[in-house]
Design a protein that fits this description.
The chain is α/β, with parallel strands linked by helices. It contains 9 helices and 12 strands. The chain has helices at about 5-15, 20-25, 30-45, 60-80, 100-115, 170-175, 220-230, 240-250, 280-295; strands spanning about 50, 55-60, 90-95, 120-125, 140-145, 150-165, 190, 195-205, 205-220, 235-240, 255, 265-270.
């Protein structure tokens, strides 16, 4: 008889990038994971993984096999969701967001949710990169701005305002920018700069304009950018939920406020075309209601 656990273990090895990480994620011994993959290869009569002393790589046959099996595994998970107790959802939900938003909003809300649904294990995947929900088997995500991926179902949960900010010390030494064009003469701090250049969408008298500025420093973490700005290293563009406390305290000062007269929409998204298990639905509905109620607005 086929042991479908072998397929799930193999998929975990591919997804986690190795036997050790897969064993930790599955709560199994590394030797057990290796043995189950070896049995699967023997049954199929094909090598799925190339193993060396330093790394594990997926063969073309292994890649084709795991891509075909991944959807089946997701359907099995959905089937389990169908038989969850209606009065108390059970299981794991993976939710991804940027760390800054999670610290301000999601952390407290997930803690509150856990008190109401103690048998649902919420796993927060905190990262600044865009997570592929399908490939990485993530159930829900908080996304901001336009959503070009039409394969996602989105629920709007609020808006976040952006600010251009600098420290009082920096402005005293270098002056305040009076127009968007002045930014080229200032030190700028960039989020996810490309080859030292960051693109900022700003408003001018002629309408919206994408301004490319040279970044003195760049990072993919808003808290790092805020620390640099507070230290007088330049002007940073930050979400309100990151910098509003520093603005209220006088540690940061908004500049060119009319150039940022907009709000960025926030969405809770999940893959379309799939059944949502009860444990995912209950967390989704909880977050939609609570975030929308709070407004997730920062001015």
């Amino acid at each position: 008889m086929r042991d479908w656990n072998e397929v799930a273990v193999f998929e975990a090895v591919v997804r986690q990038g190795g036997f050790t990480a897969a064993a930790q994620a599955l709560g199994l011994q590394k030797s057990t994971v290796s043995r189950m993959v070896a049995r699967l290869e023997e049954r199929l009569g094909v090598r799925l993984l190339e193993r060396t002393s330093r790394q594990v790589s997926v063969t073309p046959a292994g890649r084709a096999y795991v891509e075909r099996c991944a959807e089946g595994l997701r359907l099995l998970e959905a089937a389990e969701g169908d038989v969850e107790p209606l009065d108390e959802p059970v299981g794991t939900v993976r939710l991804t967001a940027v760390p800054d938003f999670a610290q301000r909003f999601l952390g407290p809300l997930v803690g509150e949710f856990s008190k109401a649904s103690p048998r649902v294990h919420v796993e927060l995947v905190l990262t600044t990169r865009i997570v592929d929900l399908i490939d990485e088997r993530v159930d829900l995500a908080i996304r901001s701005g336009p959503l070009p991926d039409s394969s996602l179902v989105a629920r709007r949960v609020g808006t976040a305002r952006r600010f251009l900010v600098a420290s009082p010390g920096y402005l005293a030494a270098h002056g305040r920018p009076r127009s968007v064009d002045d930014l080229s003469r200032h030190a700028c701090l960039g989020y996810r700069a490309t080859e030292g250049v960051v693109a900022w969408r700003l408003f001018t008298r002629k309408g919206p304009k994408t301004v490319r500025v040279k970044a003195r420093l760049s990072a993919d973490d808003f808290e790092v950018l805020q620390a640099w700005a507070r230290d007088g290293l330049g002007i940073a563009m930050l979400p309100g939920f990151v910098c509003e406390a520093a603005i209220e305290a006088g540690a940061l000062v908004p500049v060119l406020e009319r150039a940022l007269d907009d709000e960025v929409p926030l969405f809770l998204v999940h893959p379309s075309g799939r059944h949502l298990p009860a444990r995912v639905r209950v967390l989704r509905d909880f977050l939609v209601e609570r975030l929308a109620h709070a407004g997730a607005r920062n001015h």
